[in-house]
Amino acid sequence: MNNVQLLSKPAAPSITKPIELYIFLDPLCKKALTMQTMLRKLTVEYEHYFTWRYILSTKLASLNTLSRRTKGCMTGAELDITHPALPSIAIKAAELQGKKAATRYLLKLQEHALLKTKNVTSYSALIEIAKESNIDFDEFISDFGSKEAARAFQCDLHITHEMEVDEIPTIVFFNECIEDEGLKVSGMYAYEVYVQILQEMINEEITCNPLPTFDELFNRFHILTTSDVAEIYSISHQEAERELKKRMLQQKIERLANDDVTLWRKKCIQ
Asked: Cytoplasm among the record's keywords (predicted)?
């Protein structure tokens, strides 16, 4: 791998798992979806060894201008704006309610982006997504227009700059010793490469969790692509689609699709 560098880890609270991953991505970039497929498999099999945090690395020209324009949105006035940085700020606003809330919001945002059912760079669309994400809506509205969400996004951009991350996605692996340098892996590689890095950083043989059942997988992730399922179970795309269609006929999941993508979502019991 040519795109591998050693980095110093920012000061942070100690972690209970031996490895921490800094995952640099643009939430709306197609490569981010490929990265997330790999991360889901890594999490399913080896989550007992690592924690992770997303570092949003959206390119933008003027966050200060955007902050001034969004400030009026909190008054209840009819005002809708679009900006490529708004999705990232919305994710950071959701993150103020915790990592799980941010993940739910991110996945719902990506669902609409993939299916092209909402303009996810629009302020009004991002508000609607919050309603669909099972997070505290009133808190989200307050946080979305707050300095804290903007600062959190600016902090991510600062970390991206400090670590000289110039390719998205990128993962930086840190071990639990803050004095040790992290390992920066720029771009995308085969799944086995990330497993090998994990094992080398732990410096001992690592054990793989048993794979979940399909029901357990959808209880955990709720919405998956066919590629997600194929990668996690190490089966062909055709085999994955056949198994998914079986569960769709059993009314366990539903299929969402357009000309570009097919998603499979856990079906809510009425």
From this structure: yes
